[in-house]
Amino acid sequence: MERLRQALQLAKRHSDYLFAVLFIDLDRFKVINDSLGHMIGDQLLIAISHRISNCLRPTDTIARLGGDEFVILLADVKDRDSATRVADRLQEELLLPFTLEGHEIFSAASVGIAFSSVGYDRPDDLLRDADIAMYRAKAHGRARYAIFQPGMHSKAVALLQIETDLRRAIERHELRLHYQPIVSLRTRQVTGFEALIRWAHPQRGMISPGEFVPVAEETGLITPMGWWVLQESCRQMQRWQKQFVSAQSLIVNVNLSSKQFSPHLVEQISQILKETQLPPQSLKLEITESILMENAESAVTTLSQLKNLGTLLAIDDFGTGYSSLNYLHRFPIDTLKVDRSFISKVDVDGEQLAIARTIITLAWNLGMEVVAEGVETMKQLAQLRSLQCDYAQGFLFSLPLEVASVEHLMASHPHQPIILNPTTSHPQTSLIKNSQFINFFTSMHRPSAITSTISR
Prior knowledge:
Mean pLDDT: 86
Helix content: 40-55%
Distance between the termini: 68 Å
Radius of gyration: 27 Å
Shape: elongated
Largest sheet: 8 strands, mixed, barrel
């Protein structure tokens, strides 16, 4: 900190004096500590510090701030490229394997760079901005560097405000659940709803999950939020099943986050089912393939225990992550949900259509059902019907609905399965007229109609 103060004073006295601060954070260092022990972790930190030192000039300063964080002061650099070349060299050096106590260990680091040319008065601000840039590097895939830009600070302040507000939102019951129908493409019947979280901010109104869920994941708030979603979804579906005959066969789909995959997962879900009195077969848990593949052997055991509870299981966003077919057939999965990125172009892109066809065929061969996510056009629907996809959800059928809108839908079908036409579920968001929708499904039962429908 003293040397940073000296560098700042030099920069104020000499307009051509430029220096840079590099904030280094090791990627996945905790995994090494947890798997090989803290003694190996300490040896790795020492070895890394030697490699970093070898990349620097005698006039530069390196310090370990704590844990796996290092900071470098590059004094009197000619230009920005001089600092980025050091960052490149650091990355190359740290990617080379280390051999410690007979273990070959691979490491990498994310680096944030702040330059004195931005204009600073305090050393703390330099470290703060280099730290912000480092997190930007981590967010873009780790093992890289990022240069601080003034806009990053305002974004960091906004994220901190979201985190603060989100903690209050949980306490003040500002979170809401909306429910998006899942429709059988054979019968047009609603078979269930996916529970989707929304945040009704008192000043900003409805905030998109894409804005606050990543913050919740980074801060750990996703865990209490996830359990609240599960409990509230189960409680709501149980209420509907008691109130409406048409709801008794419906299923509620709830996403599980990676943070919820703990040794107590099965016990906690079992407790929620008991408290809400929802039949286990009315709950379908959606899990991404990346979560399952992080520890596939453990996932097989956990999923089998969930199946023994009676719950249904789905792999969400299938096709976007890494799956091992060796494990996929061992997971007791009921449903594959085809990611919307494939469905959005299934009517115009032959490769996306081929991928969708492959996933559907794979699911059939493994005894699973298929749900297509993000269906928005009649042409997409026609293609999915021609591929004999089982179920679909998306704006073509309905936006995610508030509780009152779902109850209105159920009340319109008090003693029979819900046949979803856009005009009956949410008139303001109808995408096609009721008569067109019915005629489309009727025509799709005639094989000769498939080609002509797709061409439209």
